Structure formats: structure tokens, C-alpha cells
Amino acid sequence: MIQSVETHPTLAEAQRAMGSDAIFMAGGTLVMRDVNAGVPARRIVRSTDPVLAHIRLSGDGVAIGAGVTMAMVAAHRDLTFLAPVARAIGGPQIRNMATVGGNLFAPHPYGDLAVALLALGARVALAGQSGAARPLADVVRDRGRVGLVASVQVPRPQAPADFGFLKASRIKPKGVSVLSVAAHLPRQGGRIRGARVVFGAMGPTPLQAIAVERVLDGQNLDAATIARAAQVAVDGLDPPTDALATAWYRREVAGVHLKRLLERMARS
Amino acid sequence: MAKTPVVFVLNGSERAAFAAPGQNLLELLRRGVGDLSPKYGCGQGTCGACTVAIDGETHLACLTLAESVAGRRVDTAAGLASGGQLHPLQDAFMQTFAAQCGYCTPGMLISAKALLDRNPTPTREDVVEAISGNICRCTGYEPIIEAILVAARGRERA
Questions:
Q1: Which residues have a Cβ under 8 Å from the Cβ of A262 and sit 6 or more positions away?
Q2: What is the CB-side half-sphere exposure of residue B144 using CA atoms within 13 A?
Q3: pLDDT tens across B23-44, in order?
Q4: Does residue B104 belong to any structural domain of this protein?
Q5: B70 pLDDT exceeds 90?
Q6: Residue at which a domain ends, from B22, B56, B78
């Protein structure tokens, strides 16, 4: 039962107000569900810090404030590479509310943006920590213990064709993920260097497909390479069974969807 | 538990109500100020029956903290008709039989209005996308899509 709602003008103050009895609320699409269902937390902590809504270019990347919504991502001229991902999340109302920071903590089967950000090698700046931003992979792994997210620093793909995202859902245009997959395949002289492939809804958090990345690295994105990548798609993944699909089904189709994504990227 | 006074503009008129800690906007609208047009469907952001516009953007009232609308403009389906005249969207919903049980209709109308305010000449795909966060379980989507397109064409002629 919520006893109080505390709204702080800066994220630093909100960070200091947190505690084991508090839950931080941004867009509310995850937290209010729990509050409506009688969440055990006693305090809601919020922040109106304007910095949370900033989108700033910095070098080869872009820093996205944790409070930026999916609708803002979809509409921003410097985030065209992420727009298809943001548009694949929820319906228009959810996109007007759900935030980038919140998506990093979204439980299965949500969190499609985090899948894309992980594939892009994003880093996370935490409130009250002046040191280097942490790799998103660490934050996703240590969910619940990392603190408040200030912004996400996203390297921009050198060429639009280097990055691709696919979401498989049963209901269109709005449906939650049976699975999602994002691939960042930087190419030098036609060959892939530093492949990153991440699956969503194929484990408790977004998971990197290390076996797929090993197959792709150093290769051309040709039919034979794509076929080999699809064969190892589920190595190291741990898909759950839920109302949308069984673990067996997810294993069966993961390679098919990965193949479709890679074929689309090879054509572009 | 201290309640928080929330002053906001509802359908053009200033309103005030007390929000309990953690209360959602849907409860504040229905119980606090008596606007029964937004409906309670799922309470978890899936159905869209509680859709309202906050400062012109569609939001789900069940997932919006009531006190977060302080000082903001909230528009619901109850504010669409004016001076005894139905809004063109409401008229079009009647013409095309786009409401059977009517439970999803207030949310559909708000999503449709947000679309037409932004894009007065939408394609069918634009309409489908705009109402993709609103679930209808009895009328069927075709009459609803048709209604929104009819209203858009009516606006074009006007």
C-alpha cells in the first residue's frame, strides 16, 4: 500500500530519497500496474528533473535521458536508427508514457528497446556517479541493485544498414514479443567486425547470442554465413514458457527470425 | 495518509480533487470529479478503455499517477460534444454503427481525435496504427476504422 508520493526537482535528490521501502516511478507503465495491484512498496519517488528528457549528440553517439519517451525516440531526427524499435513498443498511449530508463528494467516479455540498446553497445550513466558510464549488459544483469539511471549513451551505427531489429508478435500492429532480436554488424571492406546480436524474450533479461556473433565475425553477410548463424541461434539462450509461447516454440523459431533479420540486413 | 490536492483543467474547465497516495488518474476522474466517460478495463495498460488526452497526447489514465496532472489539461470523451452538438467523430461512430456495447468507445474517440488533430487526412493504415492501443471485443474494428475515416473526410469537406 502506497503511503506517500515524493516528487523531487533533481534526480540526485530523488536518488537520496530512495530506500528499501521506495519504488522509483518514471512513465508509470510498469510501476502503476504494480501499484494498481497493491504493490508492497510504501513510497513512490519521482523526479521532475528536466535533464531526464534531454537528447544530446556527443561525438559518435547520442545521450538519451532516462525520462525520454518512446514517442520522443520515434520522432527525433538524430535517433532514426532507433525509431523502428520505439514504434514497435506498445500502442500510441504507451509510447507517450513509457521511458527509455524504464525499459531497461522491464520484465519479460517487455524490454524491446533494451534489446536494441544492448546490441548497439550502449552504456548507462547512473545518478550520483561521476565515473565512467557502465556497460548496459552489467545494468541489465544487476537489475534492482544499480540505482537510478540518468541517461543512456548510445553509439550511433556508422551506416544505417549496420543495424537491424525484428520483433515477432502474435497480434499486429500492437503485440508483446514472442521474441525480438537486434543485430549490430559493423562492416570493414564488406566483412563483419565486432558483431553484436541480442535476443529479447529468450531469457529472463535481454541476452547476447555469443555463438551467433562468433559465426558472423570476419565473414561476409552471405547466404552460407546466415544459415550457419541461424543454426546456432539458441546456443546459450534460456527461453521461458508463458502465455504467448512455449520455450520449445521459441527455440524452434529463433533461428528463423534471426535468418529473416540477417537476410533483410544483407539486402539493404 | 495525507491526500494531495490536484488542480487541473478538465475539458476546458478548472477542476480540483484530492488524490490519495498512489491513486491513478482514472479513479480521480471517475470518483473524484465524476467524469465517468473513461472506462476501467484491465488496470494494466493493455485495453485502452481509459484513454484520455493529457496536454493533447493520449495517455492511459489507469497508469497515470493522479497528482501528475496538476496544472495540466486533461480531455476526455465527455468533453467532445458541445452546445448539444455531437463531435463529428461521435456522429460518424453513430452513422457507421461503430459502437455495439460502447465500452471501448470513449477511448477509441480520444485516440481518433488525437490522430485527426495531428493528421487531418489519415490513411487507413494511420487509423489502424492510431487505435492499436485500444481493444474492442464486440463491435469489430472495421466499423470503427470506417467511422474515423468518415469523420476525416467530413472535416476535409468542411
A1: A164, A183, A221, A226, A229, A230
A2: 30
A3: 999 999 999 999 999 999 999 9
A4: yes
A5: yes
A6: B78
- First-residue to last-residue Cα distance in chain B: 52
Q: Is B83 domain-assigned?
A: no
Q: Looking at the predicted complex, does its ipTM rise above 0.95? A: yes
| The overall pTM is greater than 0.90 | yes
Half-sphere exposure at residue A68, Cβ-oriented, CA atoms within 13 angstroms: 25
3-state secondary structure of B70: coil
Do A91 and B59 make contact, defined as CB atoms within 8 angstroms?
A: no
Edge-to-edge, what's the strand order for the sheet holding A123-126?
A55-58, A61-65, A149-155, A123-126, A134-135
Summarised one tens digit per residue, pLDDT across range A219-231 is 999 999 999 999 9
Rounded to whole angstroms, how far apart are CA atoms A159 and B29? 48
The residue in chain B having the minimum alpha-carbon distance to the alpha carbon of residue A97 is: B59
Read off the CATH number of the domain in which B48 is found. 3.10.20.30
Q: What confidence tens digit (pLDDT) does each residue in B115-136 have?
A: 999 999 999 999 999 999 999 9
Whether residue B118 sits in one domain with residue B69? no
The answer to the question of residue B139 being in a domain is yes
Contacts of B49 in chain A (CB under 8 A): none
Which of B4, B55, B58 has the most A C-beta neighbours within 10 Å, making it the best mutation to test the interface with A?
A: B58
**Mean pLDDT rounded to a whole number for chain B:** 96
Domain membership of residue B124 (yes or no) is: yes
Pick from A34, A36, A48 the residue to mutate for testing the B interface (most B CBs within 10 Å).
Answer: A36
Residue A14 identity (one-letter amino acid): A
Range of the domain at B94: 88-157
